[in-house]
Design goal:
Elements (H helix, E strand, L loop, with lengths): L2 E6 L2 H10 L3 E4 L12 H10 L4 E4 L11 H14 L6 E4 L10 H10 L5 E3 L9 H8 L5 E6 L10 H11 L5 E5 L4 H11 L3 E4 L15 H15 L1
Parallel strand pairs: 1-2, 1-8, 2-3, 3-4, 4-5, 5-6, 6-7, 7-8
Helix pairs in contact: 1-8, 3-4, 7-8
Length: 232
């Protein structure tokens, strides 16, 4: 089965996504800013409300993916707190000022996560070299998913890049999670052409396709049905 991850910003979003057939939630707040760290109260409430895995973003601000010592202090506190909840994984991403993966910062987050796996988010799309950054992440056993649009504004504009990353991930424990700009109508041919085994939806499964609208259960169900057709 092709995995379907849906962004939730509320308990109602998470419930609608689950009813529609989503396999996993990415829980964020401030979706209009690309997603920021949600409150512990929201994390606990969503994890209690749904039976599917809840992955939680840890992102202290939307200024950039280059973090200073104070940012890391905040992030590490958040990660340690989230690790004590029923969250399934941490979603995070960090770069150095030269555009490479901040491996030191990533290592600190992994240690603080206390065994929780990590998804490295779309910070990779701003890396100096996408394939080199992906190869760097493959060295970290804790990183089990990489959310990427293939370096483009929309993943639909980067099919060849996504297919290349899928090839790089072959035989590893890391999954390419394709997202950003996916639409209900485009998802099936996109999956067929790229070979991805996991997709990530935000606005595409919300009411009227608007980022700040609630999750539309019917749209999620339609995506799930289309993904299942690709598998046949």
């Amino acid at each position: 089965m092709i995995l379907l991850e849906v962004i939730a910003t509320t308990v109602a979003d998470a419930r609608a996504a689950e009813r529609g057939g989503a396999n996993r939630i990415e829980l964020v707040t401030a979706m209009g800013e690309g997603g920021l760290t949600p409150s512990i109260g929201l994390i606990e409430s969503v994890a209690q409300a749904v039976a599917i895995p809840v992955n939680v973003i840890v992102r202290p601000h939307s200024r950039s993916f280059v973090y200073d010592a104070d940012d890391y202090a905040v992030m590490l506190r958040d990660v340690r707190a989230i690790a004590k909840t029923r969250a399934s994984a941490i979603v995070v991403g960090m770069l150095r000022s030269d555009g490479d993966i901040d491996t030191d910062g990533l290592s600190r987050i992994i240690e603080a996560a206390d065994g929780l796996p990590l998804t490295f988010h779309r910070a990779i799309d701003e890396a100096r070299d996408l394939c080199q950054a992906f190869d760097t992440l493959l060295r970290f056993d804790a990183v089990t998913n990489v959310l990427t649009s293939g370096g483009a504004a929309s993943v639909l504009e980067a099919e060849s890049a996504i297919a290349g990353l899928v090839a790089l991930s072959s035989g590893t424990r890391c999954t390419v999670l394709a997202g950003a700009g996916l639409t209900v109508n485009a998802v099936a041919p996109f999956v067929a052409r790229t070979g991805v085994s996991a997709v990530h939806f935000g606005s595409g499964v919300r009411v009227d396709g608007k980022a700040l609208a609630p999750v539309d259960e019917a749209r999620v169900r339609r995506v799930r049905a289309l993904l299942d057709t690709v598998q046949e």
